[in-house]
Amino acid sequence: MTEAYLDIRDLSVALQHSGDRLLRRVSLAVRPGEVHALVGESGAGKSMIARAVFGILPKAVTILEGQVTIEGADLNGMSEAARRLFIGKRAAFIPQDPLTALNPSKRIADQISDRLIHILGMPKAKAHERAAALLEEVKIADPERVMRLYPHELSGGMRQRVLIAAAFAGEPRLIVADEPTTALDVTVQRQILALIAGMQARHGTALLFITHNLGVVAKLCQTASVLYAGKVVEQTSVRRLFADPRHAYTRALMAATPRYDRPEESLKPASPELMGELAREVAETDALWAKERAHG
Amino acid sequence: MADALFKVEDLHLSLPDLARKPLFGTAPRITILKGLSFTVPEGAITGIVGESGSGKTSLGRTLIRLLTPDAGRIIFAGRDIAGLDDEALRPLRRDLQIIFQDPFSSLNPRKTVGAIIASPLLLHKVATAGGEARDLALEALTQVGLPASFAARYPHELSGGQRQRVGIARAVALKPRFILADEIVSGLDVSSQAQILALLMELRARMNFTMAFISHDLSVVRRLCDRVIVMRKGEIVEDADTVTLFDKPQHAYTRLLRDSIPLPEVSDGWLQDA
Question: What are the protein's UniProt keywords (chain A) (predicted)?
Answer without folding.
Answer: ATP-binding, Nucleotide-binding
